Amino acid sequence: MDRKKKIIKRCAILLLILVFGSGCGKQFDTETEDDYTPTDENLIVVGVSQVGSESVWRTANSNSIQQVFTKENGYFLIFDNARQKQENQIKAIRSFISQQVDYIVFSPITEFGWETVLQEAKDAGIPVILMDRQVKVSDESLYTTWVGSDFEKEGELAAQYLAELVEKNGRTKEELSIVVLRGTDGSTSEIGRSEGFHKVAAEHENWHIVEEIDGEYTTTKAKEIMKRVLWQYQDIDVLVSQNDDMTFGALEAMADADITPGEEGDILVISFDAVKSALELVEEGAISVDVECNPEQGVYIEEIIAALQAGEKVEKAYYVPEKVFTKDNVGRYLESRTY
C-alpha cells in the first residue's frame, strides 16, 4: 500500500474510532483519539475482541495482548471486551472490518456461528488469528491460524495425575465419586478438557462421574453449584474443576460445609489454569493438581504477525508451552508467577 492510501486508511480508522467511541462508550477499550496522529500511518492496526473478563486467567491473557501491541512496538491496538456475548464479538469484528484494520485477533466465545462474519473478513482481505479458543467452520481458509493450548491434552493430564494420586494413596480399588465443574458450554477449552478427561477416565471402571455441570468459568456460579452438589451427594471423592476461578468458588462452598479439600482431607481437587493464587493453594495442599493453561499468548501472536508481514507462510495451529503443578514442584515457580 502506498503512502497516500495508507494515510487515507488511517484517517478513516480515526474517524470511525471517534464515531464508535461516542456512540457506545463501553464497547471499546482502546487508545484515545488523541493518541493517534498522522505520523502514525506506518503502525500496524490490530483489532482484538476478547471473550470478557470473567477470570484471573482472562485478565492475564488480555494483559499479554495489551503489553505487546503498543505504539512503541509498532502497533495501534483496538481492544474490545465482548462481555461473554457472541453478538458483541460479531459486532466488534464487523467494526474492525469497516475500520480496515490490518489484522483481526479474537477468542471465540463458542465454536459455532462464525461463518458469515469470517467470510466478510476474508472478502476484505484481513487475516484473522484465533486466540485461545477455536471455531468450527466448513472452510478453514476463513481464518489464518490459531494460537492456544492443547485442551484435550490438558484433560488427559488431569486424569493421569488423578490416577497417580489415587495409586499413591492406596485407593486404586476404591469406588470413586467424581464431580466435574465444566467451563462454558460449547467453548473449545470445555470441549477439549472434557474429552481428554473422559478418555482416560474410561480406563478406570471404579471412577464414577456422578455429575457434570456448566459452572460458566466463574467463582460465583461454581460456589452456587458446589453448595447444591455437596448437599445432594454425601460421598464425593474428587472434584475436577475446569478453571481456577470455579475452583475458588467450590472451595468456598466446601469451607462453608466444613469439608476439607486435599489428599489428607475429604475431597481431592483437580484444577486448571494455574494462576498464582491457585498455585499457593497447591503449595498448601488444598488443590492437589493444577494443569497450566498459559495465558501469555500475545508474544506468540506478534511472532505470527511479524511472519505474515514478511510474506512468510504460517502453520494452521500453534500450541503454547505448559506445565502441570503439584506440591512437589510448585515451590520452584511461585515467586516468578506474574498473574
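Above is the first protein from milestone M3; the second protein from the same milestone is given next.
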Amino acid sequence: MPGDASVIRVNNLCKTYPDGFEALKRINLDISEGEIFALLGPNGAGKTTLINIICGIVNASSGDVAVNGFDSVREFRQTRSLIGLVPQELTTETFESVWDTVAFSRGLFGKAPDPGHLEKVLKSLSLWDKKDNVIMSLSGGMKRRVLIAKALSHEPRILFLDEPTAGVDVELRQDMWEIVRELRKSGVTIILTTHYIEEAEQMADRIGVINHGEIILVQEKKQLMRELGKKQLILDLDAPLAAIPKELSTRNLEIGANDKELIYSYDTQAENTGITTLLGELREAGINFHDVKTTQSSLEEIFVDLVKRIK
C-alpha cells in the first residue's frame, strides 16, 4: 500500500431521498493516501452518490466525511480544494477554448494563474495542440481529456474518476491509464468507479464492492484474487468419463465439456494443493489424460459472484 494514513474517512454515511429511496446505507470506508482505490458495483448501486457526497455536491442524510482531517461540511472550502472530480457526464462549456475552460477551473479554487502548470497538464493529456480549439469541435474522447484537465487544474491531492473511460476508444483509454499511473507516482490519491472491470484488476491497489447502497467488501486486490478467485486444474481426458469414481468422490472434482474434461478446483493459499496426490490417484483409477492447463477466476467473475450472494 502506498501509504497508511487515511486521506478520506467515511463514517456511518446514509443518503435517503425524499421519495424514501435509500441510496446509501451506513457506509464506512477509509481510503489511504497515495493509493488507487476502485469502487465497483452495478448501475444504481450508489457509486456516484457516494462520490458526490464526498466531493460536497450532494448532502448526506446522516453520517460524516473527513478529507485529510477536514470535515466535508463544516470545512467545505478546505476539503474541496484538495479534490479533483472527473464526472461521468460531458458537461464542458462548449463555446469556450480548451485553455480558457481549464484556466477558469483553476481560478474557481482561488488559485493564482499558473500558465506553466496548465501547459504541463495539457501536454500530459495530449491536449496542448488543441488548447485554442473550441470544445464543441472536439471528439468525445478529447472532451473526456478536457474534464480530466479541469479536475487537475488546481493541483488536487485527491482525484475522483467516475466512469472516466466511458465512451472512450481503446487507444485513448490506455493513454488515460498511463496518466493515472503517473499521477499516483506523484502522490495523488485516486478513487475510480468503472464498468471496465479489467481496468480495476490492472490498476487498483484495493477494491471496494458496493451493491444496493451497502459496501459489501473492501480488500486489497491481490488478496481478493487469492481468497475468492478459484484456481482450477483442467485435464483433457483420453476417453469420456461418465461419472467420477467413488474412490475420488472426496476430491473437489467435476466433469467438464463433452465428458472429456476433468476439472479440479483448489485453494491457491493452501500449503499443499493436492495436485500431485490427485494425479497419482487418477492413474490408479485408470483415468488417463493427454493435456493439462490451469485457469483462475477473473475479477469480473469474482464481482458477479459477490453481487449474486447479496441479492
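Note on the second protein: The chain has a mean pLDDT of 86.
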